[in-house]
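Kindly go through the entry underneath: sequence plus fold tokens. Please state briefly how this chain folds according to its tokens.
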Amino acid sequence: MRTARGWELGAALALFLSTFVNKVDRKGRVSVPATFRASLTGQAFNGIVAYRSFKLPSIEAGGIDRMEEMSARIDTLDEFSEDRDSLSSIFAEAQQLAFDGEGRVVLPEALCQHAGITESAAFVGQGRTFQIWEPQRFDRHQRARRQGTTLPARRPERPAPERGTP
């Protein structure tokens, strides 16, 4: 399906909901939550794609279909623009992490260091993507974000002007 902006959206992009904390073993393996794995069923790669967050001390992750969609959106930017160059760097750092027979992935050391992950990892649903955090860092991040954050009141919609009136 093509959107108004011109990029393709897959009919079955994964959706990641909720937060799960799982143990990381000595080899860096961690079980990806079953609901996250189920959301990725049928994608071209049997695993996740992960990269360092640009803004947060966490790992950004999702399915290969999401990465393909992001690539298509980046391709709409001017060929040699700063925005395109900056956003394309995601792909240089991204790593495909295949599921083993038990639904685990091996988190690369560089990603673990960036996120401060050692003994456990919090998988945090973000809709079309998810983040992987060190659980205590995520708790602190959530508390800080909630302080003073409010949702603006919904404004009543203005009625459309009647035809023929200025």
In short: Confidence is low (pLDDT under 50) at residues 1-11. The CA atoms of residues 77 and 84 lie 6 Å apart. Helices lie at 34-39, 64-74, 82-93, 109-115, 135-146. The chain has five helices and eight strands.
